[in-house]
Each structure stands twice: as structure tokens, then as C-alpha cells.
Amino acid sequence: MELIGSESRGRQQNREFTGVHNQHSNEQGGFMSDRVVLITGALTGIGRAAAVIFAQEGAHVVVSGRHDKEGQELVAELRALGAAAEFVRTDVRVEEDVRTLVDETVKRFGHLDIAVNNAGTEGLRGLVTEQTAESYAATFDSNVLGVLLSMKHELRVMLPQGCGSIVNVSSTYGSIGAAGASVYVASKHAVEGMTKSAALEVAGTGVRVNVVAPGTTDTGMLTRFTNTDKNKAALVSTVPVKRMATPEEIARVIAFVASADASYMTGASIPVDGGMLAA
Fold this sequence. Notes:
Helices cover 49% and strands 14% of the residues. It is built from 10 helices and 7 strands. β4 (114-117), α6 and β5 (164-169) form a beta-alpha-beta unit.
């Protein structure tokens, strides 16, 4: 596997990837042309929407998740869009799975330009007094440990390259509290803090690390989280724009943050929340 290029090649990749404008990608008709993108939690919701958008923009896409059938179906859809795409079954809570995911990406495509760490769970709703060590671990292992392990192995490849962009997916609840969702909220605060710390650790290397924080988004996770249509409607009523985001709206922001057009952005948390944090 080609994990480490020469020093001169690293400098060249850094110029190509972090520049504000990439002439080659425009010539190819997509602003992500030939970029290698890895997405965890890619089989549903925001992750799936991101995979489609990156593919439409010309990227090579590696998608991961825990379900083979859905993974292969997504790969077929991405290939129908003209993208080179692969599925690697991955549980982000297991370090060997994450190591294999990154290694297989590099083995297939030679390098790794962009990683979107989207895998996560809503966890068990309930008051603090109702939580257990098991409910805490179930949420934090996916939402926090999974992001930590993903960044660890993505950076293992990106730092020797001298270029790369990592986008972690958090939540509006990474900046505020929510009664009845303490463990989920805490996990998203942790993702925000890890992202900023990692960004500072690698600042100046050509690698950027940012976080996109979606608000109320029309996904299966939201349906499970709210549990009833009444609860969902009540949550949507608190959004200043009075509607949910679509997964595609969030995914387009992820693609921008990952791209060379955001080359001076690192350590940033970008809310995409219909005005919730401004209220």
C-alpha cells in the first residue's frame, strides 16, 4: 500500500489540495474530481446523501457501515453515477475494523484526500437518573470512540501525505443542552472538543479538521429520537425556519467544508441548524 509519498510529492499534493481553486477539477466537470473520499456511517441519512453528492462531483468514494446488503446497494448507485466506489464493512467501535477501512481505501485508490466521520447513534433517551454505565458506553463507543479511532487512522495516512481534510459530524446539541438527552448531548460535545484539539495538533501540516453540526434533519435517527409524530412536530416547531433540513442540505455543507474552497478553515464548528443556535 502506498501510504507515504516522497517529501516533494507531499508538497505537491498539499498545493493541489489546499488551494482555493483547483483548475484540474473544473476541467473534469466536478469540483471533487479524482478526490478519494471515505465516509463512515454512509448507508443512511446524512452519510448516504454525502456519498451521492461526492460521487456526483466526481470523487472516488469508499463507503462504510455494518450492513453488507445496504452497502452493496449504495455502491451500485454510486457507480451508476459514474463514480469509482467501494464498500468496506466497518464497525467504528472496533479499531481493527477502522484500520482495515483506511488501509483498504489506500490500497484501492493510492491515497486519502477526504474523510467524513458520520457514524453514530442517538442512544437511549431519558433523564440522567435513568442512565446506566451500559447506556453511556453504547452511545459513547459509537459517537466518540468511533470518531477518535477514525481520526487516528485517517491522520496516519494524511500526515505523511502532507494534505487531507477531515469532517466530523456532530450536532447542534454539541453546543447546547437538551433535557432527556444528556448522554447523546455529552457525546456530541465530546466530538466538538476532539475536533478542535485534533485541528490544533495538525495545524500547519496541510491537513484540516473541522466539524459540521446539523440541526433538526429529516432522517431515520430523528424519527427514532423523537419516537412519535407529536414529539417530532414539537421539535420542529422550535426551529426558527419552521422546518427540518433535508440530508442533502447538510451533505452539501459537508462537501464544501471538505473541499479546497474552505482551505483556510480548520478547527471550525459549522452549524447547519435553521437558526437554532441564534435563537
